[in-house]
């Protein structure tokens, strides 16, 4: 790394991402379903625009965003593929969304009217996806209110009902009885939509259901986590983690036995040893709760982080290894060089890998894209 060693950096492997998307789109394709690449939360921390572009070259034809603001970022980048926005407050600028050709999720009559009004304001027709709550009890229309919602949507000329959709609560628990129950409720909702005169597409599956429930692919699958190479189910699939978190050694020092290290002096050298100061801390996404419980890859060796994780730095016990200042330090990555993975961090901190990678969206972290066919601006 030498002179170009970044302080702390995310390396995003676009080749791995494209391969993952191709694998997943291939699974969807077997059942005739299209693939939506979910790039919410800045592409799960990987960079929404770059991931969106790469996904579209690898077989995805739709993009999923949490909010209109996220969808409009994709439009502003010149991306013209279908984009669905699914969680917006009533006061959002839906007119801007309609004008930008963003598909908008609707879960209530109030929302339907707001979006219809926005469509009228821009002299367009809003493309909407009606969301039914089939049991997650999060977003979506309650089944009891659904017939009225589909009837009103069918009677609203300012909207085109593109799809009905829902989201699964336990897709990552293979065989969980709620999956089939949700599928049954989804089927009823579909028949009610047909009865109201609608002819919508259907989508229900996230990554886990895409991988494990081909019977629930319907017309479109929404895959997020798996495209980033993190498999949500214990089903072997050729996916590779896309994100590597690395930093560098700023300073090395020899400490005698009996010296203590970092705030609180919680760790004491058991022997003479070399300590490497590494330029990533909790401000860069290293969980402070991993103090004394994590290892990093330095010069091809897994070495323990000792003492407390600080805001800007961590200390690594290198023993008698010859670690040079400026050396690369891998905090997590795909694991193929022996480094920890985002899943390892999640397991140790009591969370899921989704939260680890998404939490790496940080202003101080440089993102470098590799595996780029032609150079992508970052
Ligand atoms: C985030 C999200 C997805 C993608 O889920 P993964 O488990 O990451 O594949 C799909 N649908 C909805 C509604 C979501 O919020």
TrEMBL record:
Gene name of the record: alr
Pfam families: Ala_racemase_C, Ala_racemase_N
Name used for this protein in its record: Alanine racemase
Stated family: Belongs to the alanine racemase family.
Record-listed substrate binding positions: 138, 311
Co-factor requirement: pyridoxal 5'-phosphate
GO molecular function: alanine racemase activity; pyridoxal phosphate binding
Gene3D superfamilies: Alanine racemase, Lyase, Ornithine Decarboxylase, Chain A, domain 1
């Amino acid at each position: 790394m030498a002179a170009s060693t970044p302080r702390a950096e995310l390396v995003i492997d676009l080749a791995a991402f494209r391969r993952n998307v191709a694998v997943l789109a291939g699974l969807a394709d077997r059942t005739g379903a299209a693939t939506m690449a979910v790039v919410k939360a800045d592409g799960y921390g990987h960079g929404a625009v770059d991931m969106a572009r790469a996904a579209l070259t690898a077989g995805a034809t739709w993009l999923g965003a949490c909010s209109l603001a996220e969808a409009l970022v994709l439009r502003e980048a010149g991306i013209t593929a279908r984009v669905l926005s699914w969680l917006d407050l009533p006061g959002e600028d839906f007119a801007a969304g309609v004008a930008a050709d963003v598909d908008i999720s609707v879960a209530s009559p109030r929302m339907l009217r707001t979006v219809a009004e926005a469509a009228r304001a821009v002299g367009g027709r809003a493309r909407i996806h009606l969301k039914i709550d089939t049991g997650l009890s999060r977003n979506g229309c309650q089944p009891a209110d659904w017939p009225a919602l589909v009837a009103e949507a069918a009677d609203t000329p300012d909207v085109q009902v593109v799809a009905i959709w829902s989201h699964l609560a336990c897709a990552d628990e293979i065989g969980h009885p709620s999956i089939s129950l949700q599928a049954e409720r989804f089927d009823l909702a579909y028949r009610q939509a047909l009865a109201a005169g609608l002819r919508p597409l259907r989508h229900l599956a996230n990554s886990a259901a895409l991988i494990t429930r081909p019977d629930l692919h319907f017309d479109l699958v929404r895959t997020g986590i798996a495209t980033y190479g993190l498999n949500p189910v214990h089903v072997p699939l050729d996916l590779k983690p896309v994100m590597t978190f690395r930093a560098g050694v700023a300073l090395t020092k020899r400490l005698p036995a009996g010296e203590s290290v970092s705030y609180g002096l919680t760790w004491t050298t058991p022997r003479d040893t070399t300590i490497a100061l590494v330029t990533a801390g909790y401000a860069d996404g290293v969980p402070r709760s991993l103090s004394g419980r994590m290892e990093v890859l330095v010069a091809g060796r897994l070495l323990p982080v000792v003492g407390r994780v600080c805001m800007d730095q961590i200390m690594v016990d290198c023993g008698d290894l010859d670690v040079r200042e400026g050396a690369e330090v891998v905090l997590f990555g795909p694991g193929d060089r022996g480094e920890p993975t985002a899943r390892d961090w999640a397991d140790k901190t009591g969370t899921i890998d989704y939260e680890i990678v998404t939490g790496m969206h940080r202003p101080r972290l440089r993102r470098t894209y590799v595996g780029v066919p032609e150079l992508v601006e970052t």
